[in-house]
């Protein structure tokens, strides 16, 4: 049974476990694989950075109440955050984006923004 290079599909000669015809093809294949993974990470980091910028822009005093619509109008994405934290004192769940946290205040329909220190 013939085997072919994973990159250029050239017929392989030699060891039975060989996957690439040359070092060049092996390196190119793995570089492309890493590039695709890095693109995903870049997109996620861009969303997290945008969220963080919005939170720091709105949270001037270190503890601020803002309407959900304000966050949405600025392009905030509630699906991306770096950590979830439940405050022991209030039992409220905060979503953390680097050093900024937010929590929905169900009584007022607002979001509490806070500086977060681990």
Task: Please give a structural write-up.
There is one protein chain. The protein has 118 residues and is α+β, with helices and mostly antiparallel strands. It has one domain. Helices cover 36% and strands 22% of the residues. A 5-stranded antiparallel β-sheet has the order 1-5-4-3-2. The N and C termini lie far apart (59 Å). The mean pLDDT is 93.
Mean pLDDT: 93
The percentage helix is: 25-40%
Tell me the β content.
Answer: 15-25%
What strand line-up does the widest sheet have?
1-5-4-3-2
Based on Cα principal axes, name the global outline.
Answer: rod-shaped
Q: Can you tell me the number of structural domains? A: 1
Question: Which keywords apply here?
Answer:
alpha+beta, 118 residues, 2 helices
In short:
36% of the residues lie in helices and 22% in strands. The protein has 118 residues and is of the alpha+beta class.
Task: Annotate the secondary structure layout.
Layout: H1 23-58, E1 63-67, H2 68-73, E2 83-86, E3 93-97, E4 100-105, E5 110-115
Antiparallel strand pairs: 1-5, 2-3, 3-4, 4-5
